[in-house]
Amino acid sequence: MVLLLNKAQLIKRLKAKDVPVPKDGSMTELKHRLEHWDGGKGFLFRLAIPAGRRGSDNPATMLEHGVLYWVPNSKFARMIAETQLVFIIGREMDVPKSATVLDVPKDFNNRWGIGESNGSDE
User: Fold this and answer.
1) How many CA atoms, within 13 angstroms, populate the side-chain half-sphere of residue 122?
2) Around Cβ 101, how many Cβ atoms within 10 Å?
3) Out of 14, 39, 50, 76, which could bridge 18 as a Cys pair, Cβ 3.0 to 4.6 Å?
4) Could you tell me which residue, 69 or 118, shows the higher pLDDT?
């Protein structure tokens, strides 16, 4: 269980999953990454469909037209890709300087009904 781990244990698990560990990451941030990030290369997305033509109950609604996004490898990223509302520009381990990071939202489990949540949105 993620909540019972100390910082060193969290870092060890993140490294084992090939998830980048932020230099001065908080316990909350490390737990969030352990729960939601899958490790490996993140996705580079650019929105293909203008805002007025998108449905409101999918993660692609968080993207703005004309912005390049880097999204960590995760169920969240795969859900965005599956909407077919984005161009997948590529996959990168590191965030390109020209990209905006879009992390998995803290309320991901509750917002899109994925898995179970303890209600804390962490």
Assistant:
1) 9
2) 10
3) 39
4) 69
Q: Cα(first)–Cα(last) distance of the chain, in Å?
A: 13
Asked if the model's pLDDT at residue 7 lies above 50, the reply is yes
pTM of the model: 0.82
* Residue 93 near residue 70 (C-beta atoms within 8 A): no
> Cβ(4)–Cβ(21) under 8 Å?
no
Q: Which of 57, 22, 43 is nearest to 101 (CA)?
A: 43
Q: Are 59 and 79 in contact (CB under 8 A)?
A: yes
The β-bridge relationship of strands 68-71 and 86-92 is unpaired
- In the prediction, which pLDDT does 118 show? 46
What 3-state class would DSSP assign to 35?
helix
Pairing between strand 42-47 and 86-92? antiparallel
